[in-house]
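Entry 14. Structure prediction run on the chain below.
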Amino acid sequence: MILDTAIKAQLEQYLQLLENDVLLKVSAGTDKFSRDMTALVEEISAMSSRITVEHADLERTPSFSVNRPGQDTGVVFAGIPLGHEFTSLVLALLQVSGRAPKVEQKVIDQIQSIQGSYHFDSYISLSCQNCPEVVQGLNLMSILNPNITHTMIDGAVYKAEVESKDIMAVPTVFLNGESFGSGRMTLEELLAKLGSAPDASEFANKEPYDVLVVGGGPAGASAAIYAARKGIRTGIVAERFGGQVMDTLSIENFISVKKTDGPKFAASLEEHVKEYDIDVMNLQRAKKLEKKDFFELELENGAVLKGKTIILSTGARWRNIGVPGEEEFKNKGVAYCPHCDGPLFAGKDVAVIGGGNSGVEAAIDLAGIVNHVTVLEYNSELKADSVLQDRLRSLPNATVITNARTQEITGTEKVNGISYLDLQTGNVNHIELAGVFVQIGLVPNTDWLGDLVERTQHGEIVIDQRGATNVSGVFGAGDCTNIPYKQIIISMGSGATASLSAFDHLIRSKVPVLV
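Output returned:
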């Protein structure tokens, strides 16, 4: 039995929602992956009279496709979609059966209007929390548009194929045999990369907002909800709704929620925001903010939005090490997510740059997968909690090097090593390895603001206890500000504070609010 009792019970409930018959075409050999995949498919088929199984010759073995009887949808799983991909399998079964997807009609219209022939291959890892959104987006596009097909490929099953294409990060997507994109991509982002995205004309003639929130992470979502609850005109602009939370594997310190993962948490945020009359403008990057009669926010696509107050909640991103080779070998051995990309380095030697909690936790995780992991720390000692340090030092395949300043990440087509300066001896040493994981903290997404608001030397927006900046009517919240602790729960509180302060500013201003 492939499915455990709990998952099987959950799946049985989902399969009751099938609206029409589903045909699973299976291409299997005699290897263990084929046997396990066949067992999974047969187990699922036995749970619903609407599901039948047929053996076929597909492009890859082992693999299986999810179809309507008499009509191939182009949805193929080359591997065993369990782990993080189990939801992708469930959604494919439901949507192929005719169950309506939970996306806006305008997105469905965008997908169905795509012309041309598109075949996507997505290379994933079952331990990757970023992969399912890409898989589910491409599956849905295949189901809704007969010109589109998609195959999910488990890198652990197709190691030779992954290595032949030099894939060293997941998810990695190929379109018609050519590289298309890498990393987490929402359905809207996938459509945008195909040229189907909102342009500046869709933002023309929008009335000024009472509160315009810039950033769609926990702080921005909280700020928008608090503003909307006051009954005032609220808009939120986000480059990627959910922000950096989307890249978080496990959340266990959000009080009242024992455990969840980042993508699930972000989806809940977005769902909550959409319960209110909030104008959500996703996949839009802010370019410039100016103070005129209103505050004017220029977007990268050329559109200009106006707000009577602004809440800046643009969050932060992974800090780059800034040495030769880092940019050249991104996704070719240089990585930032050990949970996602770690399995691609199974049995190989890797390094982790950074000795804080993130770096040491990454090294501990990687040690269970790779041949050997080396931690490089600039300071004379690690900064991680002592319990993590003790765990790391107990591992037989982990080495810690302190007083090490990274000089260069070396390689040709992909990473083959790292050079570092020993700050005690002055010697430059080189380590041969296949991958480098950078874990040296965060940098705020505030470069685009210029000199409009006061920022610290690290780029953080300076705010007071009410979330106010040095510019009247502009407020800040979350990880892009100088609040001392970068935590989800603190960001959400700061978003609420900034929103309440913005409302207080509005009711004391001379210009009436726009309800």
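The mean pLDDT is 94.
Filed with the rest of this week's runs.
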